[in-house]
Design a protein that fits this description.
The protein has about 425 residues and is of the alpha+beta class. It has three domains: about 15-220, Beta-Lactamase; about 220-365, Winged helix-like DNA-binding domain superfamily/Winged helix DNA-binding domain (Arc Repressor Mutant, subunit A, Orthogonal Bundle), CATH 1.10.10.10; about 365-425, no CATH class. The chain contains 17 helices and eleven strands. The strands form three sheets. The chain has a five-stranded antiparallel sheet, sandwiched between helices. A hairpin with a 7-residue loop joins strand 6 (about 225-230) and strand 7 (about 235-240). Helix 12 (about 315-325) runs antiparallel to helix 13. InterPro entries: GAF, GAF-like_dom_sf. Pfam families: GAF. This is Transcriptional regulator.
Length: about 425
């Protein structure tokens, strides 16, 4: 069976394949939603691209520029492995025919390197640092599609959705934080049709694996025997002893509370954290007993109740990163509010602490890119204070400024407030 991630089967004539796929692309644009003789991964990407883009002649937008780009990529985890990318792929980028590109998890190009003539050709389609090359903004392309499907692949010539990119062939592989599995971005090689071979795909995949191995040695904050993930979900997941389990809502709350209090917590204290003044000692003991049976005495001990194993957590990672001034990494790690469906007093307090620390760091950073990421998230879209701070940082003629001011007026009206901009504090 042919490898679905490779663009060309052995013995395929590249020129004939370009013509064949180009015809299918035009038929697809004319309304044929199921193009023939096209790899399924490409056909699915074309459909996603057509839903997102107004035209196959759309150009990838530039979202980060000048100092804003420098600040953002300097703080990005992939900056740590840039020497690995250059060592393994730099030869290709320097041969005059290829580009090496690195993007973040949203498809924003952080670095694009190669010979001057190739860079100038790529510039004509906005394949430049700071441009947004995810599928929603640039259509089918190797780095953007690798992010969308979380798999390495090649995109060959006319397989690109955007016509301006169809003279290129590219191979890309996603890169993850090995300690959390979080998608960090992708590594890409872009060049001519000769890149459509198994070696280029193997090379970018090997480069991604080398980067992940290095990050595994550098980013792990401390040795731990397990991890709890509780951000952006109502039920936490616990990874421990080689297995992963999903905790119920009450057990999720207890696990988070015990993580937040490594010195231990009495039954009475946990009862107040869970129920406030309406604490029922019998109910608390029953919940703790069930949790202890589930986790086992090797993980949970009593008198006081505390976790015996060294467990890491996603919310703990966010706060540690913030303590070290790594705001971009903390924001990338943040998957949403802590157990958002919980109204337990102890959880509500912890949730407010984590959110407050992150929001304060964003405001203090004065980084428009980071603020924009927060504001475009489900939990940040109604954040009036950060919308106002973001608007103040935008130049008067910036295209995003009218949109920001409109959102500020909407939120101020909903909250019954006069905005700081209206009060003339900007």
């Amino acid at each position: 069976m042919p490898n679905p991630w490779l663009a060309l089967d052995l013995g395929t004539d590249p020129a004939e394949r370009i013509r064949q796929v180009g015809n299918a692309h035009e038929q697809f644009l004319s309304g044929d939603d199921h193009p023939q003789k096209i790899r399924s991964v490409v056909a699915e990407s074309w459909r996603r691209s057509a839903d997102a883009l107004a035209s196959p002649d759309s150009t990838a937008p530039i979202e980060l520029s000048d100092g804003e780009l420098e600040t953002y990529r300097a703080a990005h985890p992939l900056a740590r492995v840039l020497p690995i990318f250059r060592d393994l792929l730099g030869g290709l980028a320097e041969d005059g025919d290829h580009l090496m590109a690195v993007c973040d998890a949203d498809g924003r190009l952080l670095w694009v390197e190669g010979a001057g003539s190739v860079l100038r050709a790529a510039d004509r389609m906005n394949f430049v640092p700071g441009a947004r090359w995810d599928e929603a903004h640039a259509g089918t392309n190797a780095p953007g599609t690798a992010l969308a499907i979380d798999h390495s692949l090649q995109i060959f010539a006319t397989e690109h959705f955007s016509r301006s990119a169809q003279r290129w062939t590219c191979a890309a592989a996603p890169i993850h934080d090995p300690s959390t599995g979080r998608l960090l971005g992708a590594i890409d090689v872009t060049g001519g049709d000769h890149l459509a071979n198994p070696h280029s795909l193997a090379l970018v995949r090997a480069t991604a694996l080398a980067a992940e191995a290095y990050l595994g040695r550098q980013l792990t904050p401390r040795a731990s025997s397990g991890r709890v993930a509780a951000l952006g979900r109502n039920e936490a997941t616990l990874t421990f002893g080689g297995s992963r389990r999903r905790l119920g809502r009450r057990h999720s709350e207890l696990a988070v509370l015990l993580l937040a209090h490594p010195q231990g917590r009495t039954g009475e204290e946990l009862g107040f954290d869970l129920y406030g003044d309406e604490v029922s000692p019998v109910t608390v003991r029953a919940e703790l007993s069930r949790l202890r049976r589930m986790l086992g005495p090797e993980l949970l001990e009593s008198r006081p109740y505390r976790l015996r194993a060294e467990l890491d957590s996603d919310f703990g990672t966010v706060t540690r990163l913030l303590e070290h001034g790594r705001v971009a990494e903390a924001l990338a790690e943040y998957a949403g509010p802590l157990l958002p469906g919980s109204d337990a007093p102890g959880i509500t307090r912890l949730r407010n602490i984590v959110d407050g620390q992150l929001r304060a760091a964003l405001l203090n950073s004065r980084d428009r890119a980071l603020m924009r990421t927060w504001l475009h998230s489900p939990w940040g879209t109604d954040d009036l204070q950060i919308w106002e701070a973001y608007a103040r940082l935008l130049p008067a003629g910036a295209p995003a400024r009218p949109l920001a001011l409109t959102r500020i007026r909407q939120l101020a009206a909903e909250y019954g407030l006069a905005t700081s901009l209206q009060r003339g504090r900007n």
